[in-house]
Amino acid sequence: MNITATAPPAVRAWRDYDPDVCTLPGMYLGELAQAGPIEEETDRLWKLGARRVHLPGTIDLTDTADPGTAARTVRSLSLVRDLTARAVLVEWNLRLDTAAGDAWQLLNHLQPPQRIDGPADGSDALRAWRRGHYLCKCLWRKGPGFVQIRDRRWGELRRFTADEPEYEEVIERLAYGAPAESVPAEVLADFRGEQLVLDVGELAWWLPYRVSRWLQESMVI
C-alpha cells in the first residue's frame, strides 16, 4: 500500500517558465490545493496549464522519524520528481544533514532546488547541481517483459535491467513511498545497492522518474 500524507499544502503555479512572462495577466493560476492522490497530481497540474510550480516551505531530509512527517516529505519529493519528468520548472528548497557530503547527488536528476540548507558546502553543491542538470538523467521505463533504469547521476551511464516480475512490482510499490519492510528484502537490497531508493524514515522511496517516450533517441540517453 502506498503511503501519502494528509492535507498537503497548496502550491502556486503559473502558465510559463519565464518569471517576467509570469507577471502578465492570465499567467498566474493561483494557489492550487493538492486535492487528490499524489500519483494524479502532476497530470492535473499539467492539464491546468502549469509550467512553473512553487512548493512552499522546505523539503527536510533531517526530520523524518515521525511517520506523518516522513509521508509529507515523500509526497513533496514525488511532486518534484514527477514535475521534473514533465519538464516543469519546480521551485523548491532542500535541507540536508550538516554532514551529508555528496548525498545531494542522489537527487541531482531532479530540478535543482533554489536553496540547500544544512551542509557547509551547500552553495557549492547547488552550483554543481545546476551546472550538471539535464532531463532524463535518471529514469526508468517498462518494456515488454522487463524494466530498465538508466542512470547518469555520477557522470557515466549505469544500466540496470530486470525481467523478474517482482522488480517491477517493487518499483510500483515504492513509487510514492512504502514501508521498507513491506517489500521483498532481496529486491530492495539490489535497488539500494544501485542507489535507486531513498530511505525517508521508515519509508523507502523510488528515485528515478518514469518515461513513456524518449526526449532524444534512447541510444543517446
Describe the structure.
- The strands form 4 sheets. A 4-stranded mixed beta sheet has the order 2-1-3-5, covered by helices on one side.
- It is 27% helix and 24% strand.
- The chain folds into 2 domains: 122 residues, no CATH class; 73 residues, no CATH class.
- The protein has 221 residues and is α/β, with parallel strands linked by helices.
- The protein is globular and about 55 Å long.
Into which percentage range does the β-strand content fall? 15-25%
Main sheet record? 4 strands, mixed
What is the domain tally? Answer: 2
Mean pLDDT metric: 91
Number of helices: 5
Share of helical residues: 25-40%
Number of strands: 14
Alpha-beta classification: alpha/beta
Q: If you compute it from the alpha carbons, what radius of gyration comes out, rounded to the nearest whole angstrom?
A: 17 Å
| Element pattern in H and E | EEHEEHEEEHEEEHEHEEE
Q: Give the strand order, joined by hyphens, for the main sheet.
A: 2-1-3-5
End-to-end span in angstroms?
Answer: 32 Å
**Unreliable segments of 5+ consecutive residues:** 1-5, 217-221
- The shape is globular
Keywords for this structure?
single chain, 221 residues, alpha/beta, 4-stranded mixed β-sheet, 5 helices, 14 strands, globular, disordered N terminus, disordered C terminus
